[in-house]
Amino acid sequence: MRKIYLIAAMLLSLSLNTQAYTYSAAGKEPLIDGREALIQAANSNDFVAASKAYQKVEEEVLYFKQEYGIDLDTPMRNALKAKDASKVTKVLNKIYVAEINRRLTGAEKNINDYQVAKVLVVKSKLFLDLLTPQMSAEQREQANEGIQGALKAVGNPGVFGVGAAPADPDTMKQSHTKLMQALKIFQ
Asked: Which one, 4, 44, 50, 148, has least CB within 10 Å?
């Protein structure tokens, strides 16, 4: 009987931990969700559809101009107006690099809040995964080392303190720099 209670307690504990992590990492990413429609329409020379797809993510792009003074909206509009699928992809890549940088900067600022920093780094990796196929093997390796270093730098609260690892702000900064160096090819 005691074993049953112990097993039930372990399963409940695992279930609660899993829910906590998936809940915080959940959320839509309009820039990722809109990528396929935008690129597919541009590559099909359907720039009416590409413009409509861009309108769905425009607010996300305008955020960079409003908050950071980075205008990626004008180049995207110019690429769509010129009906240049290659330029659309290049601008979208620049948007992703800006998004990765923004998220990792946020992770650096929130390094002592494990949950926030972890989610920001994990979300950065989602954007990175869309860029890596366009990178050389060496650039991919450098980018992977950067993102893995950032994930490790966040630390780990452990389970009831067991296995806890403190956050490492210096490693986070170095990893962020390393990753951004690898992404310079998209600038």
From this structure: 4
